[in-house]
Amino acid sequence: NAGVTQTPKFQVLKTGQSMTLQCAQDMNHNSMYWYRQDPGMGLRLIYYSASEGTTDKGEVPNGYNVSRLNKREFSLRLESAAPSQTSVYFCASTTSYPGELFFGEGSRLTVL
Amino acid sequence: QKEVEQDPGPLSVPEGAIVSLNCTYSNSAFQYFMWYRQYSRKGPELLMYTYSSGNKEDGRFTAQVDKSSKYISLFIRDSQPSDSATYLCAFDNTNAGKSTFGDGTTLTVKP
Fold first, then answer.
1. Considering only A85-89, B5-9, B21-25, which range has the smallest mean pLDDT?
2. Which of B15, B33, B63, B105 makes the best surface tag, with the fewest CB within 10 Å?
3. Dihedral pair phi/psi, residue A87, rounded to 5°
4. CB contact under 8 A, B103 and A40
């Protein structure tokens, strides 16, 4: 079982470049989430999608956009990367809220 | 004020010790209480899930919830080096649509 798959696992960007983080889940889950994790700051929610066709802002949405492409896929886009966006990004999914979140292994992004 | 405060750690204990990890919260709407474990360079995984005050036991792990004091704890008995990880408390309520996490406590169990 693949679970939640994130690509790429590592990425280095220059300030101002754009990129998209991809997330796919094969568990037929309705809700999907994007978090960032920084040292000493825990998991902070960027955006989430309660169901296919809906997206909502989380705690730290500025500088990001998302697309719920279909039930399986939820992408996160950085339009103009900044050093403050250097972080580890986690995608998660759940069949319904409240409930257990299943996380991917993370995407490590460095912005120079 | 943050909705969730987690004991910051880091925590280092000898193998076999009893470990106590703690979180306090301020949002009375929180009804579901979870502990996630995160190994280095991995995503978090659910360890314990409960929705009522009291204790819930699973092997060497016990989750304790005190809703009146807005306080939750995770106890690890007979700690093992394999328990070395970051532990995150998390909270849900019926209507929020998203979980609220503590900042995590990093535990090291030394052989």
1. B5-9
2. B15
3. -175, 175
4. yes
What pLDDT, on the 0 to 100 scale, is given for residue B94?
A: 78
How many residue pairs bridge chain A and chain B with CB atoms within 8 Å of each other? 55
Of B34, B41, B43, the CB nearest to A103: B43
Are A42 and B104 a contacting pair at CB < 8 A?
yes
Per-residue pLDDT of chain A (112 residues; tens, 9 = 90+): 679 999 999 999 999 999 999 999 999 999 999 999 998 778 999 999 999 999 999 999 999 999 998 999 999 999 999 999 999 999 999 988 788 999 999 999 999 9
Give the pLDDT confidence score for residue A46 in this predicted structure.
Answer: 97
Q: Among all residues of chain B, which has the CA nearest to that of A54?
A: B97
CA A49, A54, A59, A64 dihedral sign is positive
Residue of chain B with shortest Cα separation from A44? B101
Chain B partners within 8 Å of A90 (Cβ): 43-44
Burial (CB < 10 A; 0-12, 13-18, 19+), residue A98, is buried
